[in-house]
Design brief:
It is a single chain. This protein is mainly α and about 120 residues long. About 60% of the residues lie in helices and about 0% in strands. It contains six helices and no strands.
Length: about 120
């Protein structure tokens, strides 16, 4: 996978991906829970919803709203294995390694932090 900075720049050029933003409610949630708590949620979501080799509802497992991490997943093209393959050349039907999972979480958290700062 590419660097977080390069990925965010590339995503910013996509009309669809750049259309996602945290709502005021999402920002309030991040502030109340804390960034480390949100990171733990991201780690859990990626481990359970994206990392398995076979995902029965792949392409539909990530809601469009309901948690800041879900919005980050769509904004960063980390919402399903199809998007991971298209954007980052991560093959489908192969379990994600711990390193891959951590890189995804780092990207999601960088996006969330930039949104919190109003820089996206």
């Amino acid at each position: 996978m590419q660097t977080v900075k390069a990925a965010l720049e590339k995503l910013g050029q996509s009309k669809f991906r750049s259309g996602f933003h945290l709502s005021e409610e999402d920002k309030k949630y991040v502030k109340e829970k804390g960034i480390e708590s949100v990171r733990k949620h991201a780690e859990d979501f990626i481990r359970s919803r994206l990392a398995p080799a076979v995902i029965p509802n792949d392409g539909k497992q990530t809601p469009m709203k309901g948690h800041p991490v879900f919005k980050a997943q769509h904004a960063c093209a980390c919402c399903c294995r199809g998007c991971l393959e298209k954007w980052y050349k991560v093959p489908q039907r192969v379990e994600l390694s711990e390193t891959q999972q951590q890189k995804i979480v780092n990207l999601l958290m960088a996006w969330i932090e930039k949104e919190m700062e109003g820089k996206l």
